[in-house]
UniProtKB/TrEMBL annotation:
Family: Belongs to the acyl-CoA dehydrogenase family.
An MF annotation (GO) of this entry: flavin adenine dinucleotide binding
UniProt source species: Embleya scabrispora
Designated name of the protein: Probable acyl-CoA dehydrogenase fadE25
UniProt keywords, alphabetically: FAD, Flavoprotein, Oxidoreductase
Length: 384
């Protein structure tokens, strides 16, 4: 992939990628978005279409059989899928989240096995950090991993796991030395088929209803010793480094949702007539659209700059990943609320996609660290 981006102009390749993903998303994913939300069912059509076009895990490097998309290209894919269906955008996003620890710290053997499997579409990857009593305070986790001969034995409960049950592979953070808090946490690859792995009932959520969120139960799960990701005790740092990169993908999701809402509302106000003319002719409406577009563009610039930092591995990614995620998700929430408002009563009904987009936007302020946690991260890593 390309290592450098012109901050103020996206390359022709990136623009072409956007056009092709937009066409695919509109043809193969958009038609099911309302139904997937209404029925709270997994968007299998989206997974099939994305996999057929090598877009389900675009971030996997070519040397492991992937498409080798750079961080900005990955952002663009997620953005364009989220523009029509936020639930479906979690397929490429969470595949990156779940497999990033392996990419950052895994042995060559783990990379070949698991990145290859994800790239081929043999299974998706989920990320298991949070627990019922350890959300924002991730290092307070209780899940244990104990070494026993040539195996590790894992025991505990992970909560809020995106795509749990449909994913084949799970990165699990667990305590290997309870005396050391964050320095006593290690990361492992667990497979759905490992004995002792099971799942809770799907959570009943406000939005992203097409993406199952379930607890993952680890009941004396015995895995080969070589499934540890990196050195013992480095799992928390790997988990945090992963989030530095993938918070950029949550920003991308927020951008996509907001773009979808703005595009729809813009079209609507040009058609809708009141007081004898399209409501788009009223300055009150024009000012709302201007503010929405301004916030979206600011969020996009911040996100693309963060993507460039993610691709280059810049030291200040921690601040910029958190800032992009925080800013873009807040912008998406404001923009989708305003988009509902522009449609008036229609915006409030399920006959139009705006209320779904508004509900879907809310999660981007919460997951991969609440926006309050993003501020903690930013404050600890202020730009020099
Ligand atoms: N890069 C590298 N290493 C890092 C790091 C980073 N960005 N951040 C922390 N570390 C390492 C360091 O080694 C650090 O030790 P030193 O201070 O000695 O360098 C060690 O981790 C401990 O870090 P902190 O002292 O900062 O840890 P903390 O307990 O104070 O927690 C926190 C910091 C930022 C609040 C962190 O707990 C956090 O990010 N919480 C939110 C968790 C989160 O985002 N959860 C989302 C789950 S995933 C999800 O939502 C997706 C889904 O599927 C639903």
């Amino acid at each position: 992939g390309r290592k450098d981006f012109d901050l103020f102009r996206v390359s022709e390749e990136h623009d072409m990628l956007r056009e092709s993903v937009r066409a695919l998303a509109e043809a193969k994913i958009a038609p099911f978005a309302a139904e997937v939300d209404e029925q709270s069912r997994f968007p299998q059509e989206a997974l099939d279409a994305l996999t057929a076009n090598d877009l389900h895990a675009v971030h996997v490097p070519e040397e492991y059989g992937g498409a080798g998309a750079d961080a900005l290209a990955t952002v663009i894919v997620i953005e364009e899928v989220a523009r029509v269906c936020a639930s479906s955008s979690l397929i490429p996003a969470v595949n990156k989240l779940g497999s990033m620890p392996v990419m950052l710290a895994g042995s060559e053997d783990l990379k070949r096995r698991y990145l290859g499997a994800v790239a081929r579409g043999d299974g998706m990857f989920s990320y298991c950090l949070s627990e019922p009593e350890a959300g924002s305070d991730a290092a307070a986790m209780k899940t244990r991993a104990v070494r026993d001969g040539d195996s590790w034995v894992l025991d505990g409960v992970k909560r809020w796991i995106t795509n749990a049950g449909v994913s084949e592979f799970y990165t699990v953070m667990a305590v290997t030395d309870p005396e050391k808090r964050s320095k006593g946490i290690s990361a492992f690859v667990v497979e759905k088929s490992d004995e002792g792995v099971s799942f809770g009932a799907p959570e009943k959520k406000l939005g992203i209803k097409g993406s199952p969120t379930r607890e993952v139960y680890l009941d004396n799960v015995r895995i080969p010793a070589d499934r540890i990701i990196g050195e013992e005790g480095t799992g928390f740092a790997t988990a945090m480094k992963t989030l530095d990169h993938t918070r950029v993908t949550i920003a991308a999701q927020a951008l996509g949702i907001a773009q979808g809402a703005l595009d729809y509302a813009k079209g609507y106000v040009r058609e809708r007539k009141q007081f004898g003319k399209p409501i788009a002719d009223f300055q009150g409406i024009q000012f709302m659209l201007a503010d929405m577009a301004m916030k979206l563009e600011a969020a996009r610039q911040l996100t693309y700059a963060a993507a460039a930092k993610s691709e280059r591995g810049d030291a200040d990614l921690t601040f910029h990943g958190a800032a992009a995620k925080c800013f873009a998700s807040d912008a998406a929430m404001e923009i989708t609320v305003d988009a509902v408002q522009l449609l008036g009563g229609y915006g409030y009904t399920r006959d139009y996609p705006l209320e779904r987009m508004m509900r879907d936007a809310k999660i981007t302020q919460i997951y991969e660290g609440t926006n309050q946690v993003q501020r903690i991260v930013m404050a600890r890593n202020l730009p020099k």
